[in-house]
Model the fold of this input.
Amino acid sequence: MMKLQKTTFIFLIILFANCKKNDYDIEFNKQVLTEILPSIIDSTCVDIRILSNAPPPYGKMIFDKEGRYVKIDSTKATAEEIQRLKNWKKDIAEIEKDTSKIIIAFDPKISPYEKEYELIVTKDFPKDTLKKLIVNKTNEYLLNYKNIKLNGKFKLKNVNEFDRKNIFEREYKFNFSGILRVSGIKFDSQNENGILEVGFTCGRECGYGRTVFIKKVKGKWKIIKMEKTWIS
Done:
């Protein structure tokens, strides 16, 4: 009986220690993501009014003898094209002067980084120290994004407050630009380098994804590289 109690006691200690370790990992993840999220938003999100407003054609397209495109000769622009470009520049300037917030639908449910391992290799960080870890799907958590101070014109709104099926078809009384999703961060063994996935969707067939590499520099987390992973 005493032996059984002792074994049970040891098991509970180990279980408690593992739980504490997982809690610590999640809290550390939250802490770093909270710090780095403003930079991620500034580097990823856009004002859809500008993104969807491409400059109008301006000039004559030049082709070679085989019919392959070479360049556009802007000196051949027509009076109508010149006026359209002026109007476009005026519209963009008005949008850029607009001080109202750009609303981004944000999913606060953060899931672990899905890949088992990933190399962190950049000119600033030439060696990979990211340890291979098996993803634990139970380590999802909710990020308290409302307390995060953003740098620019963007403001986050919980994606669950939107009609997800028709989110891009609805009319809003605010400037809605898209949906932002981020993964949890996978760190190296020293907790000085990390990697995460970011996705921004700006329409049914509009969006892009990036792998974000971060590094702790002089006590602060910085984005050191972003790589495109998908585009639509």
Remarks:
- The chain has one domain: 2-45+101-231.
- Residues 8-24 have pLDDT under 50 and may be disordered.
- The first strand starts at residue 60 and ends at 63.
